[in-house]
Amino acid sequence: RREPLALINLKKKNEETGEEELASRLGHCKAKATRHIFLIRHSQYNLDGRADKDRTLTPLGREQAELTGHRLASLGLKFDQIIHSSMTRATETTEIISKHLPGVKKISTDLLREGAPIEPDPPVSHWKPEAVQYYEDGARIEAAFRNFIHRADAKQEEDSYEIFVCHANVIRYIVCRALQFPPEGWLRMSLNNGSITHLVIRPNGRVALRTLGDTGFMPPDKITRT
């Protein structure tokens, strides 16, 4: 939805002055800035919680979030916003990270909640949600991808740096879609708690993956994948 030619009414163009007019209008629709997307997986949480509100971060999870927040702050970037899943573990991770990034606004969304994005290929024996989950969660997670992962708006003048705190399934699916890889392969990737995945979206729509699931900033005894 950001390809400049797709943003122009070609019928109207044909009734006007032709190629010169088209070039001028294309210039107004072209992105000029690069978007840097930092996808953060939530920290370790209480797996015994029956409801979402009970699945709070463990003491180790809170340490992990502190380390992730410190790492993001150390990059010296001017972050524009933190968008996070409305689930408890993502919200708590965000609150801890945001202490290291004072002044950066936080936005909660249901679109980034954990779920089953698409049936994995090859299938796995240890994780088999009901088929209806793929239809319900998959549509929502795809909507999250389309809503958040795109080239910069033409009005954006400077490069932006945005943080998304969410879940492993969501991040893995988004990475596959952003790189135009078969999304069914999302489960072949593994992400540590509190890890940082960095996507870059250029003005021409090209996407690069700078890092995937980085936790090199954590001591080995603090790294988990639960």
TrEMBL record:
Belongs to the phosphoglycerate mutase family. BPG-dependent PGAM subfamily. Its EC number is 3.1.3.16. It holds the Pfam family His_Phos_1. SUPFAM superfamilies: Phosphoglycerate mutase-like. This is Serine/threonine-protein phosphatase PGAM5, mitochondrial. It comes from Chloroceryle aenea. It comes from the Eukaryota. Coiled coil: none annotated. It catalyses: O-phospho-L-seryl-[protein] + H2O = L-seryl-[protein] + phosphate; O-phospho-L-threonyl-[protein] + H2O = L-threonyl-[protein] + phosphate. One of its GO terms (molecular function) is protein serine/threonine phosphatase activity.
